[in-house]
Amino acid sequence: MSETEIAKVCINEFKQGERIEGFFLIKSVDLKTANANGRKYLDFVIADKTGDISAKLWEVSKEIEESITNNIIVKIRGTVVAWQATLQLKIEKVRFTTEEDNINIDEYVQSAPIKSEELYDLIKIYIDDMKNRDMQNIVNAIFEKNREKLLYYPAAKKNHHAIRGGLLYHVYTMLVNAENLLKVYDFMDNDLVFAGVILHDLSKMEEMDSNELGIVSEYTLEGTLLGHISQGVKKVELVGNEVNADKRIITLLQHMILSHHYEPEFGSPVKPMIPEAELLHFLDVMDARMYDMRRMINETKPGEFSEKLWSLENRRIYNHGDLS
Amino acid sequence: MSETEIAKVCINEFKQGERIEGFFLIKSVDLKTANANGRKYLDFVIADKTGDISAKLWEVSKEIEESITNNIIVKIRGTVVAWQATLQLKIEKVRFTTEEDNINIDEYVQSAPIKSEELYDLIKIYIDDMKNRDMQNIVNAIFEKNREKLLYYPAAKKNHHAIRGGLLYHVYTMLVNAENLLKVYDFMDNDLVFAGVILHDLSKMEEMDSNELGIVSEYTLEGTLLGHISQGVKKVELVGNEVNADKRIITLLQHMILSHHYEPEFGSPVKPMIPEAELLHFLDVMDARMYDMRRMINETKPGEFSEKLWSLENRRIYNHGDLS
Amino acid sequence: MSETEIAKVCINEFKQGERIEGFFLIKSVDLKTANANGRKYLDFVIADKTGDISAKLWEVSKEIEESITNNIIVKIRGTVVAWQATLQLKIEKVRFTTEEDNINIDEYVQSAPIKSEELYDLIKIYIDDMKNRDMQNIVNAIFEKNREKLLYYPAAKKNHHAIRGGLLYHVYTMLVNAENLLKVYDFMDNDLVFAGVILHDLSKMEEMDSNELGIVSEYTLEGTLLGHISQGVKKVELVGNEVNADKRIITLLQHMILSHHYEPEFGSPVKPMIPEAELLHFLDVMDARMYDMRRMINETKPGEFSEKLWSLENRRIYNHGDLS
Amino acid sequence: MSETEIAKVCINEFKQGERIEGFFLIKSVDLKTANANGRKYLDFVIADKTGDISAKLWEVSKEIEESITNNIIVKIRGTVVAWQATLQLKIEKVRFTTEEDNINIDEYVQSAPIKSEELYDLIKIYIDDMKNRDMQNIVNAIFEKNREKLLYYPAAKKNHHAIRGGLLYHVYTMLVNAENLLKVYDFMDNDLVFAGVILHDLSKMEEMDSNELGIVSEYTLEGTLLGHISQGVKKVELVGNEVNADKRIITLLQHMILSHHYEPEFGSPVKPMIPEAELLHFLDVMDARMYDMRRMINETKPGEFSEKLWSLENRRIYNHGDLS
Amino acid sequence: MSETEIAKVCINEFKQGERIEGFFLIKSVDLKTANANGRKYLDFVIADKTGDISAKLWEVSKEIEESITNNIIVKIRGTVVAWQATLQLKIEKVRFTTEEDNINIDEYVQSAPIKSEELYDLIKIYIDDMKNRDMQNIVNAIFEKNREKLLYYPAAKKNHHAIRGGLLYHVYTMLVNAENLLKVYDFMDNDLVFAGVILHDLSKMEEMDSNELGIVSEYTLEGTLLGHISQGVKKVELVGNEVNADKRIITLLQHMILSHHYEPEFGSPVKPMIPEAELLHFLDVMDARMYDMRRMINETKPGEFSEKLWSLENRRIYNHGDLS
Amino acid sequence: MSETEIAKVCINEFKQGERIEGFFLIKSVDLKTANANGRKYLDFVIADKTGDISAKLWEVSKEIEESITNNIIVKIRGTVVAWQATLQLKIEKVRFTTEEDNINIDEYVQSAPIKSEELYDLIKIYIDDMKNRDMQNIVNAIFEKNREKLLYYPAAKKNHHAIRGGLLYHVYTMLVNAENLLKVYDFMDNDLVFAGVILHDLSKMEEMDSNELGIVSEYTLEGTLLGHISQGVKKVELVGNEVNADKRIITLLQHMILSHHYEPEFGSPVKPMIPEAELLHFLDVMDARMYDMRRMINETKPGEFSEKLWSLENRRIYNHGDLS
């Protein structure tokens, strides 16, 4: 390939001297000043699904400087160079993407295994089947109002279900499990369990700022000062009043939200005092743990232990491989 | 005194055989059935400011059976008898009190050292002096709407300030202390501290059921399932929306309420993240402790240790007497 | 009824003066000596499904003194008397039951809602379906060898599933739940989960001494000094060697047993390091909690809170009644 | 400016190639040996109020090598060079300061907002006003004997009040707050509170080695092995005996010191058992927290969160800016 | 035996109706007032080595009322009666003992297995053999000054070595063990270990009030407010200054005392930082535990478990009997 | 020395440019690829008793690449070069050692102060002296079968006794101490204590993989999933059955092993319930602590504090130097 040709290769195939062009996710970007000459430059880490690489842009236009940010996908052209024995991309040009670029987000960020629109509809069925009108009204009002955001919000910034559409996916798998367990533990109010499952984490959409890639840049001020549990309680209060729900139903739903982390040090000021809240807690923590376990197993070779994972209480997980 | 005369003596002066008549506080009352003959009777513990005594009523009218309850003041006539070597009152007649009886409640239950009406007005001055209109509107709306209950509510069921008007008194002493400390720690927003002090415990009026004697019979359902901290957050949300307050002010006030117990295991899901919330925590716990310390010292002879008190972490307090 | 007639009434229908005869469960029995005359007597508490009552036997034969014990069903004849305003049974005659008495145990002790023999067969199907021969052999060997005891053993002395056949019932509901959850969490080895579920508590049969009523009188010496978790590990070691199982399979099964209580202070020296062990932990604790929750709800009136239950971390449970 | 001129600029204005001369605080200094040629050199970090910079001295005289130390102010002449893209000072000459240099310490280290001499006198008034002669004698003897050190000692090595004169300042603000709170909590012995406040941390002067800049280089051997609380108890014992104080007064003062950290894991083997000790604890911890809060707010822009601060239990503090 | 004869029997041989006379230990005594007639009486529990019994004295002389106290040995004459089916002693006469009564204390209270005088001398040998003069002087001064009290003081109010002379016995067994262990761990300063062992608990004599029977009635005021560890540190400070000891030796000895409980929550504000202090901790806790273990084994039949013992962290101990 | 001569110097005497040859321990070795040219090389850290140094081998033969590993001793020839101001060895040749090289392991790794063979025989005496045949048979069977490994196994991977032969040495010092303490605490079964001491850590040989240098590279799979305590219990079960030991003896030995870490969070699911187990715990922890203390003192100059050591709960240890 002549030096002037421009390759459309993946990051893990970059070779020194090559010129490349393509779409990349900006994982981080900082404006820096060179010690040597005092010139400003942008210091990037860019990524595609095959890996990431450091990149530098030396000619920083006013427009780029002011609007570039991490966690977006951009088009980049540049040359692969070596610096201190490591490959690096010297950027010639960077521009924002447009609709015409027709980017497939799934090539850049991880998404839930079921499409968000489908998850939304599957959950909607549970709401439609509720017998208690007050619960149905409250859940429905909150669920429908947030459809747009629900389609991309993750369930966490870093931990379990921190993927595009992760919040919906987390809710959906919990609903499926709830439905099965309620056949065995048949002394509970099914509506209350389903309503609790759907509502328990919805205020994460107010606790965290996520872009449409499902990447959370930071917690909101209100999220930091109050936490999604208190935010959820408030939300149910306002919507409950709007739809004129029975005060006792509102209180029970708020108790579900308030107690679902179970331990005070994890944010629940009260422990479950109704069976439905107890079950919600187990549905939540079990789904989170199984998500992390699956991820660890996938990242670990058979016969080996994974790295320690904070959200699994710093455990290393063993992949025992096929036992059959 | 002839046997038929009726004495108006205090409980600690009762003598066997005496007939007495007077007003007493019912501390407990239970409907029981005698093993011997299957007759129903009411088993009381009644009290005045000098002590308490067991009492029994054998002729139970339908009206009395249905409406009698503990923690009210009634007029009782009866005879002092001895049973198993202990004095007891055999009640002849019991009736509810009326306005004409002109009962002085302070003779039956402990009240705050300043009259409730006066406390209310003293606190009102702090509200009137607030510069931030949003905070003023929120605090004022909640404060004024609850005037009637505030005049008798205690601050707790059993612990510190569990006296008639204790809630107002607790708030007022905290305001006085806050005002002084803010002169030294002069980098904070005074309105925010004062608003936090006034609001922090107001939802105890929804958490606990108190009668007009300032005696709490039990926690409300909502109070048990949510706790006064979450209830306070909800209340500020609703009122804040009503008075059209700035969302950030609402959030800051809610953070004050949410964090004022400081430790998760005491009900605060977040720790103070603004200095005003940190100060509120200290004002609150210090006032509670000093209240309990004063009580323990008053109940203990110089040179001796008090009983252990649960709310002082099971410490026994030493009364060192006069040191001057 | 003439005084010589003998009634066959339930305990909650006993009347003073009545003579009665029937089968009763001995809940406790102590040999005592009367202060007054130095005579020996047996002091019982006896029960049927309607309640319990104190009972005394004054003529104690050598045979009865030596062989009578609590937690058995006996035939008793006696007279209802009143002592200190409480009914009591003065026993005239007590004898042990025989097969001909044809006692229906379910009238005296609580049993699992599914018959033990049926539960045994239902669990057996899971074993028969296992693909991994080593696991199947180990589980089968232990399961079949203990069939007789399994039919009556409870899962605990006092806590969850402390009923006749409770151990089998606990295992069976966990298997059903496991089967459902494994459809969602489909990256695990099903055999390993099922084997873990079946084995996890089986050594409770060596930790506790239960009679055929499913009532545990005490822990065995080995149970106290080692605990059922260590006993289970040893059992799998011995049986695993007997059936010539792969050492890695033995280790994995032992890890499942060892880690299923999760927390060191609850007896698990290691935390789960494979997803199957994590799931087993949740299946176990969730089933125990739901059992206790159901029991509390059943014992509590709608709109009220239950007593505190130790195994629910001293929580009181709220029965919200019908919400539909 | 020609290259040979010598600039008297602040560190944050250093430019490559410049020669500079001025007074700087040595924050650290290490004697090292160059790998290349085995020559010894001194590796400094020097600071003024605008920042700090790495500096190297290659010609190390015997005198300098032996007496140079960190946390002193010296006069330095040198040239600004760049090494690995960072500015650095190549020192030509360094000398110790003399009185004639007339250094203003406040330009190099942070001091209390009130002059130490004034703080000393303000505190002295509280001592002079004491009514209990024994307390007055003990406090006075310790206070006067340590006047010289008190004028510069900080209250901590790193945490709250780690500034020149910080110990006196900490004591003084606590005294002011104590005086105000004692008007509300008027059942205590004022002398005992004031004496406790003044004495509670004085043994930090024996626990830590501070130079006259108020910078603590390290803990003393005795301070490490015993801690300032035990040292304070001993000091009161010795001085109490010297001034012939009543044994009970000595014990009460020692209890104040011993219990003022409240929690065993923070060094208090007993909890407060007198109200004065309880109040002292709150005065102390509240003043420390408010000091840190003020510092964090000052270092944080409005609308942002501070860094985590260890002494605030790793909280980040939010600067809400002006709310009026 | 005629009714007028007076028996000198042990408590476990008392029979109804018998008149008895003898020496007994008063375990508790309370002045009470009879409900029936308002007469004062003294309510005792008295004991000898065979057991204890309730006793009542109805004619209470002024002298007896004022000077009688628990934990002394008195001479009692009275009649055995039965009340509510329990034996009780109706006292006719009680008098204090005199030297002529020639009471053998060991028949009433448990003492160390070696005579106190002998223990004192055995410990003295360790002091005499010390090479470090400062340590020897400090230890000797404290040890000799307290000889009289040491001969009867127990090491605790309730827990390990709560027997007459228990303090000396505890010290002595620790010295013997220390001497052996120091042969294996031969890198320590033997004098420092021995001095630490002897001093570590000596201030228990100031923390607790023991009578000459070795029975502790209560903690002293200073003991409660400061604790024996702080008292020990003070004592070493005063005596160390008196004998002009090296300051470093004083500090090391104080560190030994201060750290010997190891955990802050057990009263040690610092953890051992020298090997001698670490060893002292183990010597102390091991001797306490072994004392309690031996006691539990002695009180438990072979093949059985003891009661739970608080000082063994509520464990029940198993007596395995002879294994050979 | 001419440049072609080959020096046999110690690492701390290496000079730039020198050629050296000698035996070295490989502390770590990684196969890496150079960024510049894509060539493979081996990156070593090698050590002798005087220190360690980085080393690189650029010509990697297939045989070396496949069989080289850390924690072995090899013969190396190479040249000392400087890279980034640090000395480094450029390896020319590396070969495995043979018997003829006659390596003295003690020059490369730390060993117990008594020869392993001697320790083995000293411990054997304790076994031979046991009176209880069952214990003797169990201990002997396990001890003899593992003789070969015992001669080099350490007692830990990193902490106390992590030296060649450390396991035997740890057991031996504990036996000596046990023998002495049992003279004072003479109510225990000596055989049980000695058996417990010998068995308590033997399964560390199955928990960790150690090479013959006594260096542990990693934990075994079984060791990680079960831990040496559970492994020890299993081992005693199997061997106990083999030698037909009494079931109660087996249980007691297993209880000793199971409880010897005392705290659940350190791996003991049950606490000691027999005195012998309590003593074993103290013998173990005391020996570990004293080992670490001795090491810290040896590595620290008189008058100074050591670094913090994790296994001493992050304490720094003070070396007080000679006190005599």
Descriptive overview:
The structure is a homohexamer of 324-residue chains. Chain A is α+β, with helices and mostly antiparallel strands and 324 residues long. Chain A has two domains: 11-107, Nucleic acid-binding proteins (OB fold (Dihydrolipoamide Acetyltransferase, E2P), Beta Barrel); 116-296, no CATH class. Chain A contains ten helices and nine strands. Chain A has helices spanning 62-67, 116-128, 133-145, 147-150, 166-184, 190-199, 204-207, 221-242, 247-259, 275-298; strands at 19-33, 40-48, 51-57, 73-83, 86-96, 208-210, 216-219, 305-309, 315-318. In chain A, the strands form three sheets. A five-stranded mixed beta barrel of chain A has the order 1-2-3-5-4. In chain A, a hairpin with a 2-residue loop joins strand 2 and strand 3. In chain A, helix 6 crosses helix 10. The longest helix of chain A is centred in the C-terminal third of the chain and has 24 residues, at 275-298. The mean pLDDT of chain A is 92. Chains in contact: A-B, A-C, A-D, A-F, B-C, B-D, B-E, C-E, C-F, D-E, D-F, E-F. The D-E interface holds D 221-222, 224-227, 229-230, 233-234, 237-238, 241, 247-248, 251-252, 254-255, 258, 263-265, 267-270, 273 and E 221-222, 224-227, 229-230, 233-234, 237-238, 241, 247-248, 251-252, 254-255, 258, 263-265, 267-270, 273.
